[in-house]
Write a structure and sequence with these properties.
The protein has helices at 3-17, 19-22, 31-39, 59-69, 146-158, 167-179, 187-197, 206-209, 217-229, 237-262, and strands at residues 28-30, 49-52, 79-82, 96-104, 118-125, 135-136, 142-143. It has 295 residues and is an alpha+beta fold.
Length: 295
Protein backbone atom coordinates (compact mmCIF):
# COMPACT_ATOMS: atom_id res chain seq x y z
CA UNK A 1 0.00 0.00 0.00
CA UNK A 2 1.14 3.60 -0.57
CA UNK A 3 2.48 5.65 2.36
CA UNK A 4 -0.75 7.56 2.99
CA UNK A 5 -2.66 4.31 3.52
CA UNK A 6 0.02 2.84 5.78
CA UNK A 7 0.01 6.06 7.79
CA UNK A 8 -3.78 5.98 8.21
CA UNK A 9 -3.65 2.38 9.41
CA UNK A 10 -0.79 3.16 11.75
CA UNK A 11 -2.71 6.02 13.35
CA UNK A 12 -5.60 3.70 14.22
CA UNK A 13 -3.37 0.97 15.63
CA UNK A 14 -1.42 3.42 17.79
CA UNK A 15 -4.68 4.80 19.15
CA UNK A 16 -5.97 1.28 19.86
CA UNK A 17 -2.70 0.40 21.63
CA UNK A 18 -3.59 2.90 24.34
CA UNK A 19 -7.14 1.63 24.79
CA UNK A 20 -6.32 -0.99 27.43
CA UNK A 21 -4.84 1.63 29.75
CA UNK A 22 -7.74 4.02 29.07
CA UNK A 23 -10.15 1.29 30.21
CA UNK A 24 -8.15 0.61 33.37
CA UNK A 25 -6.93 -2.80 32.24
CA UNK A 26 -3.53 -3.98 33.57
CA UNK A 27 -2.47 -5.32 30.17
CA UNK A 28 0.99 -4.48 28.85
CA UNK A 29 1.71 -3.71 25.22
CA UNK A 30 3.89 -6.17 23.31
CA UNK A 31 4.43 -7.14 19.68
CA UNK A 32 4.78 -5.02 16.57
CA UNK A 33 3.37 -1.75 17.94
CA UNK A 34 5.80 -1.81 20.86
CA UNK A 35 8.68 -2.71 18.54
CA UNK A 36 7.78 0.19 16.25
CA UNK A 37 7.66 2.65 19.17
CA UNK A 38 11.04 1.49 20.49
CA UNK A 39 12.89 1.65 17.15
CA UNK A 40 11.18 4.78 15.77
CA UNK A 41 12.04 6.51 13.43
CA UNK A 42 13.39 3.36 11.77
CA UNK A 43 10.73 2.03 9.35
CA UNK A 44 8.68 -0.91 10.57
CA UNK A 45 5.20 -1.86 9.36
CA UNK A 46 2.63 -2.61 12.06
CA UNK A 47 -0.45 -4.71 11.38
CA UNK A 48 -2.18 -5.43 14.70
CA UNK A 49 -2.13 -4.75 18.45
CA UNK A 50 -1.00 -7.28 21.06
CA UNK A 51 -1.03 -7.15 24.85
CA UNK A 52 -0.01 -9.56 27.58
CA UNK A 53 -1.87 -9.79 30.86
CA UNK A 54 0.75 -10.07 33.64
CA UNK A 55 -1.87 -11.33 36.06
CA UNK A 56 -3.82 -14.55 36.25
CA UNK A 57 -5.13 -16.13 33.05
CA UNK A 58 -8.78 -15.10 32.73
CA UNK A 59 -10.13 -15.89 29.28
CA UNK A 60 -13.77 -14.97 30.11
CA UNK A 61 -12.69 -11.54 31.38
CA UNK A 62 -10.51 -10.98 28.31
CA UNK A 63 -13.40 -12.01 26.05
CA UNK A 64 -15.64 -9.45 27.71
CA UNK A 65 -13.05 -6.67 27.62
CA UNK A 66 -11.79 -6.83 24.03
CA UNK A 67 -15.07 -5.79 22.32
CA UNK A 68 -15.24 -2.71 24.56
CA UNK A 69 -11.91 -1.52 23.19
CA UNK A 70 -13.40 -1.24 19.71
CA UNK A 71 -16.27 0.96 20.86
CA UNK A 72 -16.43 4.74 20.40
CA UNK A 73 -13.51 4.91 17.96
CA UNK A 74 -13.23 8.45 16.52
CA UNK A 75 -14.55 8.60 12.97
CA UNK A 76 -11.28 10.06 11.71
CA UNK A 77 -9.64 6.66 12.14
CA UNK A 78 -11.96 4.83 9.75
CA UNK A 79 -15.20 2.88 10.04
CA UNK A 80 -14.39 -0.14 12.23
CA UNK A 81 -16.53 -3.28 12.04
CA UNK A 82 -15.74 -5.92 14.73
CA UNK A 83 -15.68 -9.60 13.83
CA UNK A 84 -16.15 -12.72 15.95
CA UNK A 85 -13.97 -13.50 18.95
CA UNK A 86 -11.33 -16.17 18.45
CA UNK A 87 -9.50 -18.17 21.13
CA UNK A 88 -6.05 -19.20 19.85
CA UNK A 89 -4.07 -21.76 21.86
CA UNK A 90 -7.11 -22.32 24.06
CA UNK A 91 -5.87 -25.69 25.33
CA UNK A 92 -2.30 -24.55 26.01
CA UNK A 93 -0.75 -22.85 29.06
CA UNK A 94 -0.58 -19.69 26.93
CA UNK A 95 -4.16 -18.99 25.83
CA UNK A 96 -5.24 -15.85 24.10
CA UNK A 97 -8.31 -14.00 22.91
CA UNK A 98 -8.30 -12.32 19.51
CA UNK A 99 -10.85 -9.94 18.05
CA UNK A 100 -10.55 -9.43 14.28
CA UNK A 101 -11.97 -6.28 12.76
CA UNK A 102 -12.50 -4.76 9.33
CA UNK A 103 -11.89 -1.08 8.64
CA UNK A 104 -13.55 0.83 5.82
CA UNK A 105 -12.52 4.23 4.49
CA UNK A 106 -13.71 7.37 6.24
CA UNK A 107 -12.96 11.06 5.60
CA UNK A 108 -9.28 11.55 6.36
CA UNK A 109 -8.70 7.81 6.83
CA UNK A 110 -7.92 6.11 3.49
CA UNK A 111 -7.28 2.59 4.82
CA UNK A 112 -8.53 0.50 1.89
CA UNK A 113 -6.18 -0.78 -0.80
CA UNK A 114 -6.85 -2.28 -4.20
CA UNK A 115 -10.58 -2.00 -3.63
CA UNK A 116 -10.49 -4.05 -0.42
CA UNK A 117 -11.14 -2.88 3.15
CA UNK A 118 -8.36 -3.39 5.67
CA UNK A 119 -8.45 -6.31 8.10
CA UNK A 120 -6.57 -6.39 11.40
CA UNK A 121 -7.06 -7.60 14.97
CA UNK A 122 -6.41 -6.89 18.64
CA UNK A 123 -5.30 -9.69 20.95
CA UNK A 124 -4.44 -10.37 24.58
CA UNK A 125 -2.54 -13.41 25.83
CA UNK A 126 -1.27 -14.72 29.13
CA UNK A 127 1.10 -17.23 30.65
CA UNK A 128 4.39 -15.53 29.79
CA UNK A 129 6.37 -14.42 32.87
CA UNK A 130 7.96 -10.98 32.99
CA UNK A 131 11.54 -10.78 34.22
CA UNK A 132 12.06 -6.99 34.19
CA UNK A 133 9.90 -4.03 35.24
CA UNK A 134 7.43 -2.74 32.64
CA UNK A 135 8.23 0.42 30.72
CA UNK A 136 6.24 3.40 29.48
CA UNK A 137 6.44 4.04 25.76
CA UNK A 138 6.97 7.53 24.35
CA UNK A 139 3.19 7.67 23.96
CA UNK A 140 2.72 6.85 27.66
CA UNK A 141 1.48 3.28 27.08
CA UNK A 142 2.43 0.64 29.68
CA UNK A 143 4.48 -2.07 27.97
CA UNK A 144 6.70 -5.06 28.63
CA UNK A 145 10.41 -4.41 29.05
CA UNK A 146 12.77 -4.31 26.08
CA UNK A 147 14.54 -7.37 27.52
CA UNK A 148 11.38 -9.48 27.67
CA UNK A 149 10.30 -8.36 24.19
CA UNK A 150 13.76 -9.20 22.84
CA UNK A 151 13.82 -12.61 24.56
CA UNK A 152 10.45 -13.63 23.14
CA UNK A 153 11.62 -12.75 19.65
CA UNK A 154 14.83 -14.76 20.14
CA UNK A 155 12.76 -17.72 21.27
CA UNK A 156 10.71 -17.34 18.09
CA UNK A 157 13.82 -17.99 16.00
CA UNK A 158 14.16 -21.50 17.42
CA UNK A 159 10.85 -22.73 18.85
CA UNK A 160 9.50 -24.34 15.67
CA UNK A 161 12.67 -26.24 14.80
CA UNK A 162 14.77 -26.48 11.71
CA UNK A 163 14.55 -23.59 9.25
CA UNK A 164 11.18 -22.35 10.54
CA UNK A 165 12.29 -18.95 11.82
CA UNK A 166 10.49 -15.81 10.68
CA UNK A 167 12.47 -13.14 8.85
CA UNK A 168 10.57 -10.35 10.59
CA UNK A 169 11.73 -11.60 14.01
CA UNK A 170 15.36 -11.50 12.91
CA UNK A 171 14.96 -7.99 11.50
CA UNK A 172 13.24 -6.80 14.68
CA UNK A 173 16.09 -8.14 16.81
CA UNK A 174 18.67 -6.31 14.70
CA UNK A 175 16.66 -3.08 14.81
CA UNK A 176 16.16 -3.32 18.58
CA UNK A 177 19.89 -3.83 19.10
CA UNK A 178 20.62 -0.76 16.99
CA UNK A 179 17.94 1.64 18.22
CA UNK A 180 16.75 0.36 21.62
CA UNK A 181 19.25 -2.16 23.01
CA UNK A 182 17.98 -4.00 26.09
CA UNK A 183 19.96 -3.96 29.31
CA UNK A 184 22.70 -6.61 28.86
CA UNK A 185 22.29 -7.72 32.47
CA UNK A 186 18.57 -8.30 31.92
CA UNK A 187 18.96 -10.49 28.82
CA UNK A 188 20.14 -13.80 30.38
CA UNK A 189 17.23 -14.11 32.85
CA UNK A 190 14.78 -12.95 30.19
CA UNK A 191 16.01 -15.55 27.71
CA UNK A 192 16.03 -18.27 30.35
CA UNK A 193 12.44 -17.50 31.28
CA UNK A 194 11.30 -17.34 27.65
CA UNK A 195 12.84 -20.71 26.77
CA UNK A 196 12.01 -22.62 29.94
CA UNK A 197 8.47 -21.31 30.20
CA UNK A 198 7.83 -22.58 26.66
CA UNK A 199 9.63 -25.87 27.38
CA UNK A 200 12.34 -25.19 24.79
CA UNK A 201 15.90 -26.42 25.22
CA UNK A 202 18.83 -24.14 24.47
CA UNK A 203 20.16 -27.14 22.58
CA UNK A 204 18.14 -25.88 19.63
CA UNK A 205 20.45 -22.86 19.47
CA UNK A 206 23.58 -24.94 18.76
CA UNK A 207 23.64 -23.99 15.05
CA UNK A 208 23.88 -20.31 16.00
CA UNK A 209 26.46 -21.03 18.66
CA UNK A 210 28.58 -22.85 16.09
CA UNK A 211 28.16 -20.01 13.55
CA UNK A 212 26.06 -22.04 11.13
CA UNK A 213 22.58 -20.64 11.70
CA UNK A 214 21.03 -18.65 8.85
CA UNK A 215 23.74 -19.51 6.32
CA UNK A 216 21.94 -22.12 4.20
CA UNK A 217 20.56 -21.57 0.73
CA UNK A 218 17.00 -21.74 2.08
CA UNK A 219 17.79 -19.04 4.66
CA UNK A 220 19.02 -16.74 1.92
CA UNK A 221 15.95 -17.47 -0.18
CA UNK A 222 13.65 -16.74 2.77
CA UNK A 223 15.35 -13.39 3.34
CA UNK A 224 15.18 -12.39 -0.36
CA UNK A 225 11.47 -13.19 -0.40
CA UNK A 226 10.96 -11.12 2.74
CA UNK A 227 12.82 -8.13 1.25
CA UNK A 228 10.80 -8.37 -1.94
CA UNK A 229 7.56 -8.18 0.02
CA UNK A 230 8.68 -5.31 2.28
CA UNK A 231 10.24 -2.54 0.23
CA UNK A 232 11.55 -0.69 3.30
CA UNK A 233 13.88 -3.58 4.20
CA UNK A 234 17.21 -2.76 2.60
CA UNK A 235 19.57 -4.88 4.69
CA UNK A 236 21.25 -8.01 3.41
CA UNK A 237 20.82 -11.15 5.52
CA UNK A 238 24.33 -10.99 6.99
CA UNK A 239 23.77 -7.37 8.04
CA UNK A 240 21.06 -8.46 10.48
CA UNK A 241 22.13 -12.03 11.23
CA UNK A 242 25.71 -11.30 12.30
CA UNK A 243 25.05 -8.47 14.83
CA UNK A 244 22.28 -10.52 16.44
CA UNK A 245 24.49 -13.61 16.68
CA UNK A 246 27.36 -11.57 18.11
CA UNK A 247 25.21 -10.51 21.06
CA UNK A 248 23.41 -13.81 21.52
CA UNK A 249 26.12 -16.46 21.20
CA UNK A 250 27.88 -15.81 24.57
CA UNK A 251 24.53 -15.81 26.37
CA UNK A 252 23.23 -18.90 24.57
CA UNK A 253 26.44 -20.76 25.36
CA UNK A 254 26.20 -19.88 29.06
CA UNK A 255 22.52 -20.82 29.22
CA UNK A 256 23.15 -24.18 27.56
CA UNK A 257 25.95 -24.80 30.04
CA UNK A 258 23.54 -23.98 32.88
CA UNK A 259 20.86 -26.22 31.40
CA UNK A 260 23.24 -29.17 31.15
CA UNK A 261 24.65 -28.59 34.64
CA UNK A 262 21.17 -28.45 36.18
CA UNK A 263 19.92 -31.42 34.19
CA UNK A 264 16.94 -29.41 32.98
CA UNK A 265 14.74 -31.20 30.46
CA UNK A 266 11.85 -29.85 28.44
CA UNK A 267 8.63 -31.52 29.60
CA UNK A 268 6.28 -33.04 27.05
CA UNK A 269 8.45 -32.14 24.06
CA UNK A 270 11.39 -34.49 24.50
CA UNK A 271 11.90 -34.95 20.78
CA UNK A 272 12.41 -31.22 20.32
CA UNK A 273 15.85 -31.49 21.87
CA UNK A 274 16.83 -34.04 19.24
CA UNK A 275 15.47 -32.21 16.20
CA UNK A 276 18.25 -31.62 13.80
CA UNK A 277 18.70 -27.95 13.03
CA UNK A 278 20.91 -26.48 10.35
CA UNK A 279 24.48 -27.73 10.64
CA UNK A 280 23.96 -30.09 13.57
CA UNK A 281 25.76 -33.42 13.12
CA UNK A 282 24.89 -35.50 16.19
CA UNK A 283 21.64 -36.86 17.55
CA UNK A 284 22.44 -36.03 21.16
CA UNK A 285 23.36 -32.91 23.06
CA UNK A 286 26.80 -32.97 24.71
CA UNK A 287 26.96 -33.93 28.38
CA UNK A 288 29.41 -31.08 28.89
CA UNK A 289 29.93 -27.95 26.83
CA UNK A 290 33.42 -27.33 28.17
CA UNK A 291 35.99 -26.95 25.41
CA UNK A 292 33.55 -27.31 22.54
CA UNK A 293 33.59 -23.63 21.70
CA UNK A 294 37.31 -23.10 22.22
CA UNK A 295 39.30 -22.79 18.99
Amino acid sequence: PPPEILYARQRLLLWLAGQAARHGLPWLLRGSVLTWQLIHPAPREIKDVDWVDPGAIDVPAWSAALPRLLQNIPSGFGAVEPGLLLHPFADSPFPGVRLPFTVHDAPGAPVSFDGQPWESHIEVTGGDPLTAPPLQTAAGIPAVSAADLFAWKVHGLFEYGRGKWRAKDLLDLALLLRHAPPDPAALPPALRAAFRNRQTSFGLTLPMIFGEWGRSFSAGRKWRKFRKHYAHVGQELEEVRDPVAEVLVPILKDELERELAEGWKAQGVEKREEERCEGAENDRLPQSFEGIMDP
